[in-house]
């Protein structure tokens, strides 16, 4: 199946930060989690996809179309949810819909009404009177009401309570029953992705650290623990990042099966969470 | 495009409804200007239209800035050229609202025989007002697209007062010096032109100013990052 989102050698330079030729792609029918610490380049990448920022190099294709040459066409195919509310706060849900709907060629009012009912969104309430969770649901209702093929979400769960976050994740799982769609979901709350993501792309300091199937990531990476005297220089070579205390060490390895074969019972190897993987990659310069 | 203009009305519907107040204020402020029923009346009408478009355009721009609306607008299937064009067209929609209010307010004043002098609405008045509104917004809007509302606010205030006092001063000067040779010659040469030439000439000038301003704004906005 063709890629719904393809980013190739994308570059963007600001003073003090640059996105360094990043590449990744997302196939239809899957959810890709885009993770990384604050300031790693997640929002910059999303803004470049949406042409809110001007790229310095590389290409971005959505549904096989260049995001600059076919900007209007692909924006008809994209639904977006951002971390901040960028809607007009003094307008009601109904008025916002009245403004937004004519922009989309495939706007489906029936779907919008259905999502409002499902999300219990009041039509005549002003945006500023909605809670953060309700605003996010409103953004999602808009994003889903024009038959978007690619849903782009920039930190949609930040600032939401666990109940709303879990509700959002259920909605996304339900959306993905349609395998013609794809979801690109940036977050630093990686536990959300562990529940729903098929692929994970990790960005740090403007570089892609890895972009792979989530199951491969959690199956191959390993959290190695052991006493201090088992921390040999050979083992250190395999560690991506680690921390030590007076009792022992804990570190991340990329190929836990290889480490298991080499060091057998001298260490304990556990399955790392995405959070731990992110933590050790970003700690690397200080600790190893 | 119509959706973008509708948005400019919806986000400030209270102010749109109350914009007639600015017309009443202008009529009252300029009650003592000599020649309200003739040349100065044109300037008063033009200043009233400038005031209405200044307030509504400025407020729409402020609201866009506050809402960070550029992010959402540029994420939807709408081109930057459409966003810029809609901002310019909104100005004339605001002016049309001002004209409707002007007709209603001056009509009500005349019907009620209130002791308020009201310049009658005329074709000439509309052209002078359109010219003044175009000139002011054609200077202001590129600065708004370049720096956003907050940073361009000072420019819009200066422009408004230039038109506010400038229009009034100019009208009074023409009225008081209508016997001077220069003014006479100027008025005669204008009078000597057929109306069609004047109308087409002014329309052409308005279109040129507007188009140049639009191109500058578009160039600036195309480079903007959000």
Question: What do you see in this structure?
Answer:
The complex is a heterodimer of chains A (288) and B (226). Chain A has helices at residues 42-49, 71-75, 93-100, 109-118, 132-144, 162-175, 190-196, 214-220, 233-238, 256-263, 274-287; strands spanning 3-14, 17-27, 31-35, 57-62, 65-66, 78-81, 150-154, 182-187, 199-204, 207-213, 222-227, 239-244, 248-253, 268-270. Chain A is α/β, with parallel strands linked by helices and 288 residues long. Chain A has 2 domains: 3-217, 3-Layer(aba) Sandwich (Rossmann fold), CATH 3.40.50.300; 221-287. In chain A, the strands form 3 sheets. A 6-stranded mixed β-sheet of chain A has the order 6-7-8-3-9-10, sandwiched between helices. In chain A, a hairpin with a 3-residue loop joins β12 and β13. Chain A starts with a strand and ends with a helix. Chain B is globular. The model of chain B has no long low-confidence stretch (mean pLDDT 87). Chain B has helices at residues 2-10, 13-18, 20-29, 39-66, 69-73, 80-111, 123-176, 181-192, 195-223. Chain B has 226 residues and is mostly helical. Chains A and B meet through α2 and α3 of A and α1 and α5 of B.
Structural descriptors:
heterodimer, A: 288 residues, alpha/beta, 2 domains, 6-stranded mixed sheet, 11 helices, 14 strands, 35% helix, elongated, B: mainly alpha, 82% helix, 0% strand
Mean pLDDT of chain B: 87
For the record, the count of structural domains of chain B works out to: 1
Structural class given helices, strands, pairing of chain A? Answer: alpha/beta
The largest sheet of chain B is: none
Strand order of the largest sheet of chain A: 6-7-8-3-9-10
String of helices and strands of chain A: EEEHEEHEHHHEHEHEEHEHEEHEH
CATH top level class name of the largest domain in chain A: Alpha Beta
Distance between the termini of chain B: 21 Å
As a percent range, the share of helical residues of chain A equals 25-40%
Q: Which range does the strand content of chain A fall in?
A: 25-35%
The average pLDDT score of chain A comes to 90
Q: Count the strands of chain A? A: 14
Computed structural class of chain B: mainly alpha
């Amino acid at each position: 199946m063709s890629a719904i989102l393809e980013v190739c050698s994308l570059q963007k330079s600001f003073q003090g930060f640059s996105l360094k030729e990043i590449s990744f792609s997302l196939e239809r029918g899957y959810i890709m989690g885009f993770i990384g610490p604050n300031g790693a380049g997640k929002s910059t990448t999303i803004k470049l996809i949406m042409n809110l920022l001007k790229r310095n190099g590389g290409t971005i294709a959505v549904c096989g179309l260049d995001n600059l040459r076919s900007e209007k066409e692909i924006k008809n195919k994209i639904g977006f949810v951002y971390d901040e509310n960028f809607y007009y706060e003094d307008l009601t849900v109904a008025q916002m819909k009245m403004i937004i709907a004519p922009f989309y060629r495939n706007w489906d009012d029936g779907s919008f009404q259905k999502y409002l009912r499902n999300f219990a969104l009041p039509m005549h309430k002003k945006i500023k009177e909605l809670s953060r969770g309700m605003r996010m649901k409103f953004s999602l209702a808009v994003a889903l009401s024009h038959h978007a093929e690619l849903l782009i979400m920039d930190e949609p769960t930040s600032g939401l309570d666990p109940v709303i976050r879990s509700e959002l994740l259920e909605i996304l799982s339900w959306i993905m029953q349609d395998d013609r769609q794809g979801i690109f979901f940036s977050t630093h709350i990686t536990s959300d992705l562990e529940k729903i993501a098929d692929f994970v792309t990790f960005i740090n300091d403007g570089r892609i650290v890895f972009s792979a199937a989530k199951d491969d990531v959690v199956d191959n990476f390993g959290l190695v623990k052991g006493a201090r005297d088992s921390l040999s220089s050979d083992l250190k070579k395999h560690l991506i990042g680690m921390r030590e205390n007076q009792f022992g060490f804990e570190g991340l390895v990329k190929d836990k099966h290889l480490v298991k074969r080499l060091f057998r019972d001298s260490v304990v190897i556990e399955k790392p969470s995405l959070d731990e993987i992110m933590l050790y990659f970003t700690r690397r310069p200080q600790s190893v | 495009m119509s959706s973008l203009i509708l948005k400019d009305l919806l986000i400030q519907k209270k102010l749109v409804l109350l914009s007639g107040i600015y017309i009443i204020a202008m009529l009252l402020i300029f009650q003592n200007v000599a020649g309200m029923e003739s040349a100065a009346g044109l300037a008063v009408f033009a200043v009233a239209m400038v005031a209405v478009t200044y307030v509504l355009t400025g407020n729409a721009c402020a609201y866009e800035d506050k809402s960070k609306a550029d992010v959402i607008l540029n994420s939807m299937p709408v081109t930057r050229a459409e966003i810029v064009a809609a901002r310019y067209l909104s100005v004339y929609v605001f002016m049309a609202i001002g004209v409707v209010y002007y007709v209603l307010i001056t009509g009500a004043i005349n019907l009620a025989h209130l002791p308020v002098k009201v310049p009658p609405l005329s074709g000439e008045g509309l052209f002078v007002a359109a010219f003044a509104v175009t000139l002011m917004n054609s200077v202001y809007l590129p600065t708004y697209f370049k720096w956003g509302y907050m940073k361009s606010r000072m420019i819009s205030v200066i422009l408004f007062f230039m038109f506010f006092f400038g229009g009034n001063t100019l009208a009074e000067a023409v009225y008081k010096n209508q016997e001077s040779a220069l003014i006479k010659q100027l008025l005669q040469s204008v009078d000597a032109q057929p109306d069609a030439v004047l109308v087409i000439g002014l329309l052409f000038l308005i279109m040129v100013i507007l188009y140049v301003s639009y191109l500058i704004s578009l160039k600036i906005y195309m480079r903007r990052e959000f």
